[in-house]
Design a protein that fits this description.
Blueprint lengths: L20 H9 L7 H9 L2 H14 L10 H8 L1 H16 L3 E2 L2 E2 H22 L3 H10 L2 H9 L1 H14 L3 H9 L3 H11 L4 H9 L3 H4 L2 H15 L15 H7 L3 H5 L2 H15 L2
Antiparallel strand pairs: 1-2
Helix pairs in contact: 1-2, 1-5, 2-4, 3-5, 3-17, 4-5, 5-7, 6-7, 6-14, 6-17, 7-12, 8-9, 8-11, 9-10, 11-12, 12-14, 14-15
């Protein structure tokens, strides 16, 4: 079977479970300092399942808070709007796209994505970039894999098997079979979903940041490498991608200082993974 071209790929997005309207609204509010807490909480409260997962995750990550978080509005007040958006997005993605069929395990993908997101938030804190924007970019960076698998399951499993059997990076195997990789596929999906431009750049640049020249792309690339180096997500046949020196230089990263946060990154990842049940 011939896989769809990159131009044809977005037409397959309709086969994916749609994100709840509450999540779409919150995504549009990411980074909006003027977002009204009552309105944001109202949108979350329209979906009881999202409320339940938000409260479970919020209480898990609300370090240093002496009282329990018992409502969506309180979560916004205690954690801040951007962080709540990240939690809601993480829980919605993990539950709506949790598939294990035809040789493709989405749960492993989300564990890896959560690892990259955990790294991204800490790297962002060290480089002056919006930490929650970075977290969201890390969470969505591999979304193209989901779309490629939905569009052509047999071809995508073939790419996974080729990567493993030939010991080559997944993007090389994808390009061999599809003619494009999951970064390009993810960019196409992000544009179809009308996600913020920074998120589109984060997805597009995470493997080859030097080709895109984006600050958030550089950050997600570095976080991807760091997540693999720390083996977050416990990926089978884990390989550490090549790190772009240019991306590190443009971010002004101080690696000795960042190394002091490795234990914190691992603890954040573990807490979030347990809270989300992935």
């Amino acid at each position: 079977m011939t896989p769809p071209s990159l131009d044809e790929l977005p037409s397959h997005a309709k086969a994916l479970p749609s994100l709840p309207e509450a999540v779409n609204y919150l995504m549009r509010s990411l980074g909006d300092d003027g977002a009204d807490v009552d309105t944001l909480a109202h949108h979350i409260n329209s979906d009881p399942a999202i409320v339940a997962r938000l409260l479970a995750a919020a209480n898990s990550v609300a370090c240093g808070v002496s009282t329990r978080i018992y409502s969506a509005k309180q979560a916004f007040i205690v954690l801040g709007a951007d962080r709540v958006v990240s939690i809601v997005l993480a829980s919605a993605l993990a539950y709506r796209y949790d598939t294990l069929r035809s040789g493709f395990d989405a749960r492993l993908l989300w564990r890896h994505s959560l690892g990259v997101a955990s790294c991204a938030r800490v790297v962002a804190e060290q480089t002056g970039i919006n930490p929650e924007l970075a977290f969201t970019g890390g969470l969505l960076h591999d979304i193209g894999q989901i779309l490629m698998h939905v569009a052509s399951p047999l071809n995508y499993v073939q790419a996974l098997e080729l990567s493993h059997a030939s010991d080559i990076p997944l993007i090389a195997a994808e390009r061999s079979i599809f003619g494009y990789d999951h970064a390009a596929a993810g960019r196409a999906l992000a544009l179809t979903w009308k996600l913020p431009g920074d998120i589109v750049e984060a997805i597009a640049a995470h493997h080859e940041p030097d080709e895109v020249g984006s600050e958030i792309g550089n950050l997600i690339h570095v976080s991807e490498v760091l997540s693999h180096a720390l083996d977050l997500g416990e990926q089978p046949n884990n390989r550490v991608p090549e790190l772009s020196d240019l991306a590190c230089a443009e971010l002004g990263l101080a690696w000795p200082k960042l190394a002091g946060h490795f234990a914190e990154i691992e603890a954040r990842y573990d807490g979030f993974r347990i809270a989300l049940g992935i």
